[in-house]
Amino acid sequence: MKTFFSSRAGIIAVGLAIGILAPLLQYWGNPGNMGICVACFERDITGALGMHRAEVVQYLRPEIIGFVLGSLLAALVYRDFRPRTGSAPVARFVLGAFAMIGALVFLGCPWRAILRLAGGDLSAIFGILGLIAGIFIGTLFFRQGYTLGRAQKTHFSVGLLLPLCMAGLLALMLASPQVQGELKSGVLFYSIKGPGAMHAPLFISLLVGLFVGFIAQRSRFCTMGAFRDVILFKQTHLLLGVIALLVAAAVVNALLGQVKIGFEGQPVAHTQQVWNFAGMLLAGWCFALAGGCPGRQLFLAGEGDGDAAVFVFGMIVGAAFAHNFGLASSPAGVGPHGIAAVFIGLAVCLYFGLTMRAKA
Fold first, then answer.
1. Could you tell me if 110 and 52 are in contact, meaning their C-beta atoms sit under 8 angstroms apart?
2. Once rounded to an integer, what is the mean pLDDT over residues 251-273?
3. Cα–Cα distance for residue pair 119/251, rounded to 1 Å
4. What is the pTM of this model?
5. What residue stretch is flagged as signal peptide (predicted)?
6. Which of 256, 302, 304, 353 has CB 3.0 to 4.6 Å from 68, enough for a Cys bridge?
7. Residue spans per domain, the chain
8. How are beta strands 152-153 and 84-85 bridged, if at all?
């Protein structure tokens, strides 16, 4: 078991598992084509904490908590918990914020882009192409010596900070359960309509999150890494897991009657294809420069990577900015200031790529 998940069969098994469980979570109550979406779920958590007041996207998603705690469990069991931090934290925070903004212009993270395609949403193709283009641009800077520097070993307690935060959020949710028809319960906000009001039962979501976090930590599953490895090294190991996720999700969606092929009328999606592409171009470039997709950042944080935790906090703050300042899209299209935010984010990525290079 210790080496299985690092094998070709192991990464395929992880992709199949996620591809099966995500449509099931949708079937059990999560939003359409959003059985799992790291960006959207972190955005919902941001709303649940009152950091933005978009009432249709406020729910403390247990899947995210499970990802981090499941990764922590795997790292502790297999003695892979390695507390480290200190590699350009401010840059990582900014990259996390703009990655979230790009993802919310598209309306989904890389996982959701694949799941949208598996559910028949053809607009997801533009998002996936944008993601690949952003990652490709990132690899050009890698070849020119781009680096955020090397993290340093740190205290065990520092590596536990994000897992402890997630455990605290779970305790908060248990102490302040949703009251039917009430927007706020205790200190948490709960959507009573819209995507935030659609969720699988709490403990099912948590168990799925724990399981996915455990196996993803062992396999190093990462959608950004899959495309980066193909572009840079011609290696398809991680890509096999992504393909397995797509195939499994398409099959399960078909069996559950959750497929609707086309562009129009897709759940929590818009058809402004230029900005579907551009949003994920920005997100993909940010993921490449930061060293991992949003799911991978959660799994890294669970195994003690403080820099990944900083990226996660950046995404949470980015979600607050996106909804407080009209940057996020909706089914009606891109937000009033979303296009400007994309261009600013691309300029920031270019600035980082040109200035953060290892010196000979």
1. no
2. 98
3. 9
4. 0.97
5. none
6. 302
7. 4-355
8. antiparallel
